[in-house]
Structure formats: C-alpha cells, structure tokens
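Reopening this one. Same input as before:
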Amino acid sequence: MKISNITLTAQQISGNQTGTGISLNVENGYEYVDGKVTDKVICQKYTVVFPDNAYEKIVVKVKGEKPIITNEQIQQKGGQIKVTLKNLSGKFYRTNSGEYALSCNADSLEVVQ
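Same output, byte for byte:
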C-alpha cells in the first residue's frame, strides 16, 4: 500500500466531521501546463487553521475563479472568519526533496455565522 493512495476525511484533517475551521487568508490558485504556471485561475487557496486538530494550519483548494470570501472581509473580522469546508478531503504526496506534504481540497466553503 502506498501512502499517496490514502484519502483523508474531513474528520482526520479538521478534527470534526463538518470540516469547520478558521480562514486566515485566500489567494488565487493557477493552472499548470507542462510543469509551468499559466495566468489561468482555476481555484482559490484558503489558509485555514483547525482548532479541533491542535490548531493545525493547512491550505485548502476550492474550485472557482472568484473567492467566496476576500482578504478584505477576513481583515474586517479581525483577521479570521469561521468557515465550513464542504466535502473536505486530503492526500499525501511526495515533494521534489522527498518529503511528504498534504494536499487538501473541498467542493465549497461556507461562512459560519
């Protein structure tokens, strides 16, 4: 069995079944073609901290060209907004240096009121 074949659940990543955490930042994620970055935005990358998982900080990719929440909105809320990531999942991969890293994706992001 290869570790890169294992898919982590929302519970394993966030420490809760709903994938709820605190968003700190958002930035565009760009498409890569033949190993080179293009100008095409294919996702938004949210930096999220998970209090229920020892405050682990992870970048989660959510498909879409436009952010659901902006950095300005995050700053207006004191630098953090509580969010739920729908269908949060993750996989380990090996970096060029041979170390393991975690890649996380979600179908959507919702602000928790």
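So the earlier flakiness isn't reproducible anymore. For the record, The mean pLDDT is 95.
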